[in-house]
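Summary for the steering committee. One of the milestones for this cycle was to obtain a three-dimensional model of the protein with 4'-deoxy-4'-aminopyridoxal-5'-phosphate bound, which we needed before selecting residues for the alanine scan. The sequence and ligand used are listed below.
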Amino acid sequence: KEMTRLDAQEIQSLKHQLDERYAKFKAANLNLDMTRGKPCPEQLDLATAMLDCVKSTDHLGEGGDYRNYGGVDGIPEAKRLFSEYMEVTEKELIIGGNSSLNLMYDAVADALLRGVAEGAGPWTRLEKPTFLCPSPGYDRHFAVCESLGIHLVPVQMNDNGPLMDEVKSLVASDPNVIGIWCVPKYSNPTGIVYSDEVVDELAGMKTANPDFRIFWDNAYAEHHLTEAPPVLKNILEACKAAGNENRVYMFGSTSKISFAGSGVSFIAGSETNINFIRKRIGFQTIGPDKVNQLRHTRFFQNMDGLKSHMKRHAEILNPKFTATLETLERELGGTGVATWSKPVGGYFVSIDAPEGTADKIVKMAGDAGVKLTPAGATFPYGKDPKNQNIRIAPSFPSVDNIKTAMELVCVCILKAALDN
Ligand code: PMP
């Protein structure tokens, strides 16, 4: 029943029930962690055979001896496979080390220090270098900028991408606005996919600063939970069509395909951008871990291999997302106190609780032994202006633990809603 329609007596009895349920959870001494989108051990097991793909007797690749220095932008086998994954040409791609976040940090830091390809110079020359942050979004993106002294401006996130009227007016009016963070597919945390219209608008919009860059973090490109996945429009193609081919840096990695921490990462963009970045990386390193790249290409072989591998991930993840969503529906459906995302891919479920309650809910759940991502984390500076967004990461815990944890989360949401 809708909570606003309960009479005083019903409220008293509901309060009593919730307090009892909460006390039971507390007594159970739970110790569950739903803070981060970590793959579970069963997911990692899917790729363990990769560790046998390069042997002491069989370690040479097309490019020669990968035990040695060189190959700063990746081995030919990896460029072939992952250019297809990123939907760019091999010349528009660099294979990095084990972390795409690392590539993003370096791209931002380098732009501050030296500027961008064909640009006007270091971003530090701007009075107040500023990034737009569609929110809720990925906390580590915001943290990269915050740690480097870049000003962050939240932009409303809709079901088809950021609110473009807001984005367009901000980038057109202020030359300090130099970048935007985007997770265009199965966005972290709301799970939405950018529409073709939004992609085209981002690619074509007028920017007051010609050095403006879109940080297009396609971390979940093949991470579907459905048989008929949505298709994301290729933003590099859209930028080229709009005459802004240098506007976008695309990122990706196998952190949630092979091993989180021992995967391979990618940066892609126009040849101009990639040549500029390759040169800089050549100062940073004599070459990446090519042996790991070889392991990856031998294991996956081609995109068909990678896609069928991702189907096995989906088989593990789907029951966990189902358990999360079924518990939310059972406990909160029809109460009118919360809304939540129903993602068809990616790693998160995003809940909007009543305004002003997210921090209390996260604390209550924590006190009963279920750790959640800190309230506010999905907004710049950790400040959710409405204090209502809660990010749920169902990948790591078992289905049974998810059911327990989500039931507790729902009890906390209902308690907070009643007290509100
Ligand atoms: N981007 C997004 C949107 C993510 O959710 C994550 C990890 N959860 C990362 C990047 C981190 O990627 P990597 O492991 O390649 O650094």
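Key point for the committee: The chain has 13 helices and 15 strands.
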